[in-house]
Amino acid sequence: MRINEIQELQTAHYDLLLSADPDKSLIEEYVKRGLCFEAIFSETIVGILVLLPTRPETLEIVNIAVSEKLQKKGFGEKLIQFALAHAKNNRYKTVEIGTGSTSFGQLYLYQKCGFRMTNIDRDFFLRHYEKEIIENKLVLKDMVRLSIDV
Ligand code: COA
User: Fold this and answer.
1) Which of 43, 90, 137, 147 could form a disulfide linkage to 96, CB 3.0–4.6 angstroms apart?
2) Is residue 130 predicted with pLDDT exceeding 90?
C-alpha cells in the first residue's frame, strides 16, 4: 500500500469520506482547510485520511476510512501510523481524534495505536446530526475524544 497526498478529490474519495462522516457539508468544510491523503493498493483507492491543524502544535485526524471490502487487513493502522509520522516530521506535538462512544472497533484501533481518552463531548451527535445514528444496536449520542503525543 502506498499513501499519496490528494490534489483533487474524486467520487471514490467522497465515498470513503462519507463512510466515516455522513455530514457532507462538514466534509466540504474540513477538506478545504486540511491535508487529504489517499491509500492506494493494487492501483485502486482503498483508503482516505484527512489531517487538520486545529490548535497550535495540534493536528487532528478529522476523517479516516478504508473501503469496506478491505477493512481489518491493517490499512487503517497504516494510515494512522502515517498520520503520526507526518505530525512528528512537521513538528506537531499532539494528534487528536474523535469517535462515537458506540464505535467499539474504532476505539480499539485508536487505543492499540497509543491514543488515550481525553474527554467526552456529551450529546455531540444529537446536537450535530439531524438523523439518529444507530451503531452496535445503540443510539449514538456522545463523542469520545482521544489524543497521543508524538
Ligand atoms: N470493528 C472491530 N475491529 C476493528 C474495527 C471495527 N470496525 N476496525 C478496526 N478493527 C480492528 C481490526 O480487527 C484490527 O485488530 P487486530 O490488530 O487485533 O487484528 C485492528 O483494529 C486494526 O485494524 P485495521 O485493519 O488496521 O483497520 P481498518 O483497515 O479496518 O480501518 C477503519 C479501520 C476505522 C478506518 C475502518 O474500519 C473504516 O473505514 N470504518 C468506516 C469509517 C469509520 O468509521 N471511520 C472512523 C470514523 S471515527
Assistant:
1) 147
2) no
Which residues form ligand 1's pocket by a CB distance below 6 Å?
19-20, 64-66, 71-77, 99, 103, 105-106, 108-109, 112
Q: Which atom of ligand 1 is closest in space to residue 77's alpha carbon?
A: 26
What number does the ligand 1 atom closest to the CA of 99 have?
48
pLDDT tens per residue, range 101-119: 999 999 999 999 999 999 9
Written as nine digits, the cell of 16 is: 470513503
Q: DSSP 3-state assignment of 47?
A: strand
% residues pLDDT > 70 (the chain): 100
In the chain, where the domains are located: 2-149
Determine the residue of 3, 21, 66, 137 to mutate for testing ligand 1's pocket, defined as the one with the most ligand atoms within 8 A of the Cβ atom.
66
Q: Report CA(55)–ligand 1 centroid distance (Å).
A: 27
Which CATH number applies to 2-149: 1.10.760.10, 3.40.630.30, 3.30.70.100, 3.30.43.10? 3.40.630.30
The span from the CA of 6 to the CA of 27, in Å, is 15
Res. 23: pLDDT tops 90: no
Query: Structure pTM?
Result: 0.95
